[in-house]
């Protein structure tokens, strides 16, 4: 079973790239982020013709998450992170696919630091950690994946000294991520490749992709009952080099 996460950075603007990648990679489940479209603007027919059914949670101009499935049905559990009924940003969707509970997330960027956006990032992170602890306590096989907007360590960013006051690399952000992982989750990429330089995002500016000046901010966290099924993981880096591609590349895992 192949599961992927992909921040498309605008599903309509990147639709040809998304469809090309789906045809090439053929993942069974895909969590998408940054749809930047409401439901009436989602290209549902094109996705269906590509062989996928989907749960959509869109938002005008910003945010937006989805879970796509091929050959299996996703049964929605929730489309908001618990803990703040007034938070209307579409950043989380959770469903059961087969025996797996999959949470697709788009954690706030948090820049500029300091400021209200960074405060929102940390409060959202706290809610995520609380919800994740409950998912772990269920004992069910769970995957939390998406754009975390977190650079976990110095190896996960090109020239880390330039990022010390960026919301993605701030001490508070990394501590929140470490708290989450410390509950008992496993970072799939680092589990298989503990010391490799692996990036999932390259800025559109300063030829970041050409220089491989990237970040690793798209992650798969696996619960204990999933980690034993992990066969492979990787980043489809070449997709970032396609014309009119997102600034993120798809990240994937394979489970037995």
Q: Could you characterize what this model shows?
A:
The chain is α+β, with helices and mostly antiparallel strands and 256 residues long. It has one domain (2-255): 4-Layer Sandwich (Deoxyribonuclease I, Chain A). It has helices spanning 15-25, 44-49, 116-137, 171-182, 188-192, 208-211, 224-227, 237-240; strands at 2-7, 29-33, 53-57, 65-69, 74-78, 92-97, 100-106, 142-147, 186-187, 201-202, 214-215, 218-222, 230-235, 251-255. It has a six-stranded mixed β-sheet. A six-stranded mixed β-sheet has the order 5-6-7-8-12-9. Strands 10-11 form a two-stranded antiparallel sheet. Strand 7 (100-106), helix 3 and strand 8 (142-147) form a beta-alpha-beta unit. The chain is globular. 43% of the residues are buried. The model has no long low-confidence stretch (mean pLDDT 98).
Quick overview:
The chain contains eight helices and 14 strands.
Q: Say which CATH homologous superfamily is assigned.
A: Endonuclease/exonuclease/phosphatase
Head-to-tail CA distance between termini:
6 Å
How are the strands ordered across the major sheet? 3-4-2-1-14-13
Compute the average pLDDT.
98
CATH first level: Alpha Beta
What does the largest sheet look like? Answer: 6 strands, mixed
Beta-strand share of residues: 25-35%
Compressed to H and E, one letter per element, the order equals EHEHEEEEEHEHEHEHEEHEHE
Q: Helicity, in percent? A: 25-40%
What would you report as the Rg, rounded to the nearest angstrom? Answer: 17 Å
Q: How many domain units? A: 1
Looking at the overall shape, the CATH architecture is: 4-Layer Sandwich
